[in-house]
Amino acid sequence: MTTPKRIKQGITRRRFGKAVGGAAATAFGFQFIPSHAWGQLEKPTLVGIGSGGKGRTDIAKSANAGFRVIGLVDVVDVKKMAEATGRLGSMADTRNRFPDAAFFTDYREMFDKLGDKVDAVTVSTPDHHHFHASIEAMKRGKHVYCQKPLTHGIWEARMMREVAEKTGVKTQMGNQAHANDHMRRVVELIRAGIIGKVKEAHAWTNRPIWPQGFEAPPPSKPVPNWLDWEQWIGPAPWVDYSPRIAPFAWRGWWYYGTGALGDMACHIMDLPYWALLPGSPKSVKAQEEGATELSPPISSNITWEFGPSRYTADEGFKYHWYDGYLNAHFERDGWNLVKESDEYNHPGEDVMEGMDFQTYGSVIVGEKGKLFFNRFQNNWVVKPSSTLDGFEWPEQSISRARDQDNYKEWLDAINGKIDQSKSYFGLAGQLTETVLLGVLAQRVPDTKLKWDAENLEVKGRPDLTKYIHREYRDGWKIRV
Q: Which helix (H) or strand (E) holds 192?
């Protein structure tokens, strides 16, 4: 296990720059041989790492945006199945749409064999593979679109930012609403002071909608011949195969996923974080119900405290998160999350003020009023309406994504039409660090953790290092 001292030595920008600048500095194995996509290309080549579920969407929309799909990577080989149904059917759809794409079950083998034929990759795997797949791509000069959360752990998010900047590749995290015009306009309005300096923000979701809160693995089953379970486990701790782990319920495992918070916060917390650009929090504290050594909580409340920034109140601001259903429990026989009612965790009436409550959303509280926002709706609301009296509507200051499409924005960055897509790893990595610090707080509830962002450590808690920089299985270790 990496010690706190080792992490401290490995993460500052100055030391990182020295490391990759010298000969001994190939800890990441940087080759600095950019792919042939650097410059203007009509159709950059793309490999989809993860081809089902969100992977199917990422690959298809990248193709629609203008990429040429030449490879697919997935631990499931649907060609070996008699019939691919349910969630596995999406993998079959992808294989059928791109029949000439080379297929691999291991992305490391793909990079070795396809080499400079690849310009870019989408990474749509379970969380625990995001870092390894993306780092392997970036160090080979490949552009990367990676699903949220950007990484499984805090140290990994910092490294993703550093490596992306050092290599100069074009990057994008898959929080798609970041490309919507109405989100970018609301960011401009908050920065222009539509509700005054911001004091706090609230965000919530009704998830998890998968099993969480279990204390032991499900009974193991024989590994199907169409599944590479060794590769699915990858860098994470080993658990014997069960269909109750994959293809979907992995989000309910600390080993492989990051629970409701990791799944949804990079979407829902995005607007206030982007608008305020608060940097790293000073502290975080969580309350939770149902967490175990193996599984995230069934519900939780989290509060981050930030120092002041240009757009916040002088004393800084607090960010509040709410997830899960109230009065729910894990039922082992059916391996289900059983809800005793449809009531889920959300802000109280003092925050909502009678506004129609939805399954997810956010409220930004300023010194003059509140702004209510849902990323899929452009009818945001400011209360009280008198807040708008005399407000000077700002000019557009944030460029808009072509067709409000984050895949097209990523392509435009690759082709040099813009510098970077707006959810590039520099910003997305900061947001992900904040979100994953909340995940860490869920592991030690009812404890205020004081965060040292420069050294990536919780002050006075060296015992938490193992959650900040996780151990990797043999064959998957990455030195820094």
A: none
Kindly list the distances between the CA atom of residue 12 and the CA atoms of 216, 453, 456, 469, in Å, as whole numbers in the listed order: 38, 10, 9, 15
Say what the pTM is. Answer: 0.91
Domain ranges of the chain: 4-175+406-420, 179-398+436-459
Q: How far apart are CA 37 and CA 66, in angstroms?
A: 13
Cα torsion at 449, 453, 456, 457 (round to 10°)? Answer: -30
Collapse the DSSP code of 80 into the 3-class scheme (helix H, G, I; strand E, B; otherwise coil) and give the result: helix
Q: HEC string of 253-282?
A: CCCCCCHHHHHHHHHHCHHHHHHHCCCCCC
pLDDT tens-digit map of 314-352: 999 999 999 999 889 999 999 999 998 888 899 999 999
CB 59 within 8 A of CB 75: no
CATH architecture of 4-175+406-420: 3-Layer(aba) Sandwich (3.40)
Q: What is the CATH number of domain 179-398+436-459?
A: 3.30.360.10
- What pLDDT does 15 receive? 33
Which of 287, 301, 205 shows the shortest CA–CA distance to 251?
Answer: 205
